Amino acid sequence: MTKTDRAATSGRFFAASSGDTLQCELCPQRCRIAPGSAGFCGVRANRAGKLHLPFFGAVSALAVDPIEKKPLYHYFPGCEILSVGFLGCSLRCPYCQNYRIAHDTTARTQYIPPQQLVQTARNSGSFAIAYTYNEPTIHIEYLLECGAAAHRAGLKNVLVTAGSLNDAPARELLDLMDAVNIDLKSFSAEYYRKTLHAELESVLGFTRTAVERCHVEITTLLVPGATDSDDEIHRIAEFVARLNPAIPLHLSAYHPTSSFRTASTPAATVHARAETARRFLRYVYPGNLGEQTETRCPACGELLIQRNGYRTVLPGIASGGTCKACGRETDIVRH
User: Fold this and answer.
1) SS3 for the chain, per residue?
2) 173 and 259 assigned to the same domain
């Protein structure tokens, strides 16, 4: 990573502990960081008693993606979005799909200051910037600066996150976000604690706060024998429905990674869990199956959106955003 002309790298969201030790207050890990060390995430460090951000602006991945890849199905459908990833993570999911950038801070990066990223988004023709790929919230200082610059430039901000963040930083960050996909990995506090090394309640709190501030969609990965039970999805769908039954829920099939070799989730399981979730929610989408998905009007059943892979068409939505057949307002955010 090129460190020439690096921006300021002092961090926020910490408190003094004993001596020069710091306690990070960003996420539920609440790491006590000794001088010369980094926290659980690997990217927030203690330099001489100050919280230091050695990876501020260190971009590990940059691409223009379909918005459906986030996945966001009800937010600017059919549009492309500049997507940016960093390094590090505040969880330890054994089936991580992006392990190289999430848990290896030696991965190759390029330094992109916030204003340059905003200009890159504008040059690409993107309507927004998506902060994604790793766990972006551990780079909150960068996201806050970039998010504010994006809004000044007329761009939207999209966050793809596990939602493991303490309340005060979550509120500050979400005030700048226009859409969020939250990876609700389980509804078991024990599973979060023992397997993911995280806290379920903080994710639920983050989700409640997000729903108050921006467009929200939820994703749950159905890992066989871990998060794919009917009871698990029943509880997740019930929780989401209490917030808003129009929130889309994506139930994604798991596929083996290099470090986690459990067999893939059967398509039949994904579809069965989707039926369970539909008892509570208007919009439930099976994912990672390579199948066509549809969004239909909950009032009359008219086909509103059809997706084949990442090719998206909107045959049933009128120019004003209503259902062409019955005139009902759709639960879709468009231009």
Assistant:
1) CCCCCCCCCECCCEEECCCCCEEECCCCCCCEECCCCECCCCCCEEECCEEECCCCCEECEEEEEEHHHCCCCCECCCCEEEEEECCCCCCCCCCCCCHHHHCCCCCCCEECCHHHHHHHHHHHCCCEEEECCCCHHHHHHHHHHHHHHHHHCCCEEEEEECCCCCHHHHHHHHCCCCEEEEECCCCCHHHHHHHHCCCHHHHHHHHHHHHHHCEEEEEEEECCCCCCCHHHHHHHHHHHHHHCCCCCEEEEECCCCCCCCCCCCCHHHHHHHHHHHCCCCCCEEEECCCCCEEEECCCCCCEEEEEECCEEECCCECCCCEECCCCCECCCECC
2) yes
